[in-house]
Amino acid sequence: MVRIPAAFAHALLALCSLALFHGSTCAVAVCVEQCDPCFSQCLCHHTCSHTSQIAFEPAHRLVAFERIETTELDGSLRTTLAWIGGLSVARATGRPEASAHDLREFAEGVIGVNQELLELDAALGHWKFGSVELAGEFALVRFERAGAGAAGGTGELLFVFDAQGKLLEIDRVLTHS
Predict the structure, then answer these.
(1) What is the rounded (10 degree) CA torsion for 78, 84, 90, 91?
(2) H or E element, residue 100
(3) What whole-number distance in Å separates Cα of residue 156 and Cα of residue 129?
(4) Which residues contact 114 (CB under 8 A, 6 or more apart)?
(5) What is the pLDDT of residues 95-131, one digit of tens each?
(6) 164 CA to centre of own chain
(7) Cα–Cα distance measured from residue 99 to residue 142, given in angstroms and rounded to the nearest whole number
(8) Cα separation, 63 vs 84, whole angstroms
(9) pLDDT digits (tens, 9 = 90+) for 134-176
(10) Which of 24, 52, 67, 100 has the fewest CB within 10 Å, making it most exposed?
(11) Measuring CA to CA, which residue among 108, 90, 112 is closest to residue 163?
(12) Which residue from 62, 66, 64 is spatially nearest to 119, judged by alpha carbons?
């Protein structure tokens, strides 16, 4: 039996490795992002991190509510969706507490999923986020009418939440000039 010196064996191994991997490349990729694939397109990962979260549309779809339409003394049209059942930030996100940002995102999701009820006709403009007001037991998310064009007038869309993030009421007021 012939013994090969260790130095020669290491050199032979290095040459074989070089021949084997010649022409190949090695790449290391790191992907860091603040993204939730349940709400937006992500580059790094594609699975929801909220195990208790339900699908986006059912979590934002208005199903059980009472619709009340009135004309105010100033001529503005008020549509109130009251006694809303089953919609909450916690149900949509899986988080027990709702921040101002969560309330805004949830309200925007409700507008997007319920366009036939809440969205404006193209001639009347669109809803632009206004503010989130936190007042102890209640929170108010306000949207304002923007881009009304020739139709003129003002309007607002108000979302009323309880302290736990449950959607209680939506008021849509349109004033024509």
Answers:
(1) -130
(2) helix 100-113
(3) 10
(4) 60, 61, 62
(5) 888 999 999 999 999 999 998 888 877 777 889 999 9
(6) 18
(7) 15
(8) 8
(9) 988 999 999 998 886 655 678 999 999 999 999 999 999 988 7
(10) 24
(11) 90
(12) 62
**What is the Cα 21 distance to its own chain's centre?**
46
Amino acid at 3: R
Residues near 109 by Cβ (< 8 Å), separated by ≥ 6? 39, 56, 59, 60, 92
Alpha carbon distances (Å) from 132 to 43, 50, 97, 105 = 30, 24, 15, 11
Structure tokens at 79: 């549509």
DSSP helix/strand/coil, 85: strand
- Token output for 23: 């022409």
Q: How far apart (Å, rounded) are the C-alpha atoms in residues 164 and 44?
A: 32
Q: Tokens 């020669």 identify what position?
A: 8
Q: What is the total residue count of the chain?
A: 177
Encoded tokens for 24: 């190949």
- Please state, in angstroms and rounded to a whole number, the distance separating the CA atoms of residues 50 and 58: 15
